[in-house]
Amino acid sequence: MRVLSLSYNDLPYHLKYCFLYLTIFPEDTYPVRCRVLIRLWIAEGFIRAQTGKELEEIGEEYLEELSNRNLIQSELDFDGKPKTCRVHNLMHKIILSKSREENFCNVFSESQRNFGDKNRRLSVQSSGLNKLDGNFKSVCTLFMFRVPYSSIRDLKLLRVLHLEGASLEEFPKEIVGLLLLKYLCLRKTNIKSVPKSLGNLRYLETLDLKQTRVAKLPKKVLELKKLRHLLVYSYDRHYTTSDCVTGFEISAEIQTPSLQKPSLIKANSHHGVIHWLRNLTQLRKLGIIDLPTEDGSNLCQSIEKLENLRSLNVTSLKKDEVVDLQAITNPPQFLQRLYLKGQLEKLPNWISRLCDLKRIRLKWSKLTHYNNPIDILQDLPNLLELQLVDSCTGNQLDFSKKQISKSEDLGT
Question: What's the whole-model pTM score?
Fold first, then answer.
């Protein structure tokens, strides 16, 4: 215990709070998604801005340092970056004790039900807490893990609200009164819509509505100036004949200059959607579904404006409809992930110039042996993963000797 405590005490000041934040999550339940953790650190103000770097990139460096110090156990993604992380049980007990000492976070569970006078962060992991009032008015961060929803009407100081998996059928009206809110997660709830008054939360940076029934967003939400991550999509686990993902419709221009990730936008929801994208120059990850063939060239023009793009996911309107992205002349030079779902008349030549590309997935492409995708893909210097699903109509693929030297995963 003393040795592990020294490991914690040796941390730089800015990493101590980041590490203590893992006490918010229940022990021995599930690993924490690294992208989610970084967004939470940003909302809490734990990440120091650095010239020339996005906050998300700095967060990745923080995670890497914690991993190098063996303070967290990480599951790595295909490119070697942490995908999920967790804390060893013994270390979790140590930082839980440190968290109580520093009044960093109070955990309400079956074994811990006592609180002090001032509670800045509260993690509810037991259904025994029926009402949030009294000494909870100073709470700035609230997590409720699969427990019955409690009213948050009096928690005016909230900046982080995480209600993943809560038993909600309707959007809680009191949330629109949380004017300091930066992070809102309603993932895996049954809400069907969000009110336009949500657009009054002018500090909101992350809106997570993944795996809900929300299919459309009000105009005012699309005008939030500080919004960085907009996640509105779900997967139908019972739908197996075609693509099972559903996105969201927009009826007005997205006017959020800081937006990093909008997923997943329905391209056919408004005739101006594809054109509006070119104004979102800070985008790092873009997901487009239901793309009509005739909008392909328009999308190409928008993609060329997105110089910071790292990930591009495009799905056609129908399984047998062509995804036409041939017109791109200057592709985003930092693109690392490319997912194309839909028929391709041929693989776009510009893909061969993506020197940073690490993962490519093609689905329903129906490429013939005259348009062998390997001719373009085998010379990519940093390709690690190639996945082809119903992508080629021939009987074999021919690879040149000593090509795709870095690839670790070839899936067909």
Answer: 0.92
